[in-house]
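cron nightly-structures :: item 1 of 1
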Amino acid sequence: MNRPDLFTSVCAFFGSVPVILIILGLLVLISLQLSNPELFVESITDPSVISSLTLTVSAAACATMILSLFGTPLAYILSRKRFLGKAVIEGLIDLPLIIPHTVAGIIVYLLFMHQGIIGQVSILAGIRFQETFSGIVIAMLFVSIPYYVNTVREGFSQIPIRLEYVARSLGATPGKVFFHITLPLTTRHLITGGLMAWGRGVSEFAAVVMIAYNPMIISTLIYQRFNTGGLYAATAVASVMVLLSLLLFVCIRIIGIRVLREAR
């Protein structure tokens, strides 16, 4: 058995620092719950916590589905076409990565509040965004755009364009080429992009709270519990979220692996 070289050992040492940091954080969180298990059990069974978790997961899922509908063709165009202003569009897509979350929330609020450009029109159609589920979905969608589009665009870029040319030369329409060749070959990136967008939506706080403090997503509830019940009340809810997120991510990873195997 070959012994690891010095460079590999150094990389392993420095690479272990982020992992150790996460493990220490989880251990501290778990230790607090073990010191007061009654509060943790109460948080798990609290109807408001369950309702908030359900709201958070479902809103993030809706945002991801909407983003996949509009973000997938955008990613394809950016990966395949050259046009004037492409760099500007790519910069705009990356903007939610750079701006503070509070600024993202202000942008969403200005657009979708009752007096906003989109909000005024949506009210006429009977759709309200302030303090509603729809507002939460829009805020999560806004901050998740670069995570999905950039990941899927990378997937499209890795597919040789000559495969599409060959299919077109055999009489396939552009639509058939996209849905029967290009899209299936991008399955892994579609799953990864959707997972990242969903996770980004679940973790958002500032952008959501600007447009919809109520109903409370889990991040807002944790903040509210911290202000009213103190550290123990907040960490109990946070522990529930960490546990649920870990279980969901493991399940999604397993599902993604099975989808990839079937696609092959």
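cron nightly-structures :: done
The longest helix spans residues 47-80.
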